[in-house]
Amino acid sequence: MNLKRNFLPEKKTRWRTTAVFLIAVITGLGFFMSKEAALVSYMSDDPLACVNCHVMTPVYNSWMHSSHREWASCNDCHVPHNNIFNQYYFKAKDGLFHASVFTLRAEPEVMFMREESAEVVQNNCIRCHVQQVTQTKYDGWVDDHAKNRTERQCWSCHQEVPHGTIHGISTIKNNIAPIPTDSEKTVIPEWLEKEMDNNKK
Fold it and tell me: What are the pLDDT digits (tens) for 85-109?
């Protein structure tokens, strides 16, 4: 009760109505923004959640055409897997950083991982490919394999995995989001479809 008294102005003052109205507006805007931003979808493991930000469409489409698509989702590579609390903490922290950059329209043409994110991806590469990393038979035909397998990043050699060799927001033509590139759904608007049908007659 004391908290309510400290938080809101006295009932008989004109500021009480204004404060209640502003609280309602801020709460309503918060719910509206959560719905519009599909906030709950980011808690899932669905790669389509990443395409909520349209600048991620080329990255999503390149992953869709990679061998990793059958085995690893975005979270498998870009989120730590040491415990569930760290997983969601990292996801929230990274997501808020990305959202602020995209909202301010400050995203670069070519996006690079931050140091913390690169460490997570490297750990996940090793987690999935530990047998290849520790395999000593490669020592004979891969230069400095014994040293390099632990002291450099996997993508210093495997640059094309899984997002291709050319990176950038405008690198893949005709990017469509959020519809996946292998979808059978049409993206032609109804009015255009009618026009096309009329022209066929």
Answer: 999 999 889 888 888 888 888 888 8
